[in-house]
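Researcher: Please translate sequence to structure tokens.
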Amino acid sequence: MISQYRLKNGFCLSLLKKMDGEIITSHRPFPYKAYNEIDKANTEDQIRFLAETTEQIVSLFDILSDLDEVKWDSRTLDNFLNILKYRQLKELEECTAEYAARAGHSSSERKVRRHFKKLKKILKKANYSEHSLEQIRNVVMHHLMRMDIIAANVRQKLEKNKN
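Model: Translation complete:
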């Protein structure tokens, strides 16, 4: 799963960049603390974090895909969502299902959930303006880049454990 993750993640990043519109430098909130915490976490928590963050991105873009205000190329948006939903998220969920069930979520996962809740509120308050959509797209690109680093670390840990 992790060996394919980086390839699919890279494809998702390229699709985000293709969705028309200008990439805007965003001053939107980003959960840096959550990523710093998860960088130090065990492999199991890192994979759960990747799954949670992917799920939150899918949830956000599902909302956007239903809006008329979104001027992004619909085919590119559909491809982006399909890869995230049916390839990345499904595989991450299968991977996390192998781990024992646990109560609650890590603080990193809770921070990411709150972060995406804020992003949804920001979009709604801005009435899904083109500018706010582009800022959110930029934030999601940042997420995908950071998630790629986590996936590389997970892969490295797993390969190390094999040997």
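Researcher: Any highlights?
Model: The longest helix spans residues 130-162.
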